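In response to reviewer comment 3 from the previous cycle, which asked for concrete evidence that the modeling workflow produces usable outputs, we include below a single protein chain processed end to end. The sequence was submitted unchanged, and the resulting structure tokens are shown without manual editing.
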Amino acid sequence: MIKINNLEIENVKRVKAVRLEPSQNGLTIIGGKNGQGKTSVLDAIAWVLGGNKFQPSQAQRNGSMTPPHLHIELSNGLIVERKGKNSDLKVIDSKGNKSGQRLLDELVEQLALNLPKFMQASNKEKGDSLLQIIGVGDKLGALDLKEQQLYNRRTEIGRIADQKKKYAAELDMHPDVPKEPVSAAELIRKQQDILARNGENARKRQSVDILKQRAVILQQEVIRMEEALTIKKEEQAKVSADLVIAQKSALDLYDENTAELEKSINNIDMLNMKIRANMDREKAEMDAEEYSKQVDGITQEIADIRKQRTALLNNADLPLPDLSVDKGELTYKGYKWDNMSASEQLKVATAIIRKLNPECGFVLMDKLEQMDIETLQEFGTWLEAEGLQAIATRVSTSDECSIIIEDGYIKGDEMPFETAVPTSKKIWEEGKF
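The workflow returned the following structure tokens.
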């Protein structure tokens, strides 16, 4: 990993002359009051390493007749300088070979020089950055899209199911009627069958009367017509036998009552209306049940997709434990960015930036005064454990600061570049390192 071994800055913004050897691991805190040149140090580092896009709009210190002079030595042996009227870039490796900005761009992560750009990005943009870093962005995006589509579909079907349930509950129910509509033609046909059977019974009864009358007449004829007695007696015997049979048959006859059918025929419209109401309610209840089953099925599909998302993230090479992406947004320990503490935000940002370019082992941080001392120490311990170098500023003049910037100098070392002169008599000559 590439880190900053030492740096020398002269006449950049508020800095007059600063020489610094930052700690290789953990925090190097540049302290001081407001307007003394703390942030100018970070801006100078970003400019010399990041190129002209990081050049301050008014780079040369106000009042200085000498142009900015920036010198940084990296842990891989590269020496990077910007000096002269046009602040020309010079990059020299340990063997004396010269190179340019392209080499620096390959080695130095841009966001390490511009941490606020990441910090101020939207939560979704941070999440997208993480997903791209760990190589699961496209897969997770497809799962999120499918989950959203299923969620929308489940919502719509659930709404229909609720409507069906409410509609079914509002319909009348008549438990004492048949399940299918009754046919008037069928009732009339049954009525006609009964009337036909009753007519046959009447015909049989009439036949009995006729036979009785015939028997009487024949009896009288027997008396009057003795000469035909033999023939008439045979006929009488036959008729008498038929009479006996007819009488026995007539005794078992029963006339059916059509009153119930007549009532049904008269009430068929009302009856069928109730039957159809029952059928509508049953249909609505069946529809509601079917849509509810679809909702349950989609809910299971969503659960399966979420398991796939979890598995995908669990198997990914994440920059930090407990770092994740939920619905496209970055989360840490279950919290979204705006609910993280300041130290957690810096830790997450630093870890992600490191993952973007593992070769870049340093990051610049401004305004660390938002952290209390305990949190600051905790953050510094984490940086050391990760082997990361952080050069940061803090509005403070207390012991937690590595150096104090005062009026463009390091306090106590106001003339840092004339090392041959004793500290108490150091005289800084502008433009000389």
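The two ends are 27 Å apart (CA to CA). We consider this sufficient to address the reviewer's concern, and the full set will be provided in the supplementary archive.
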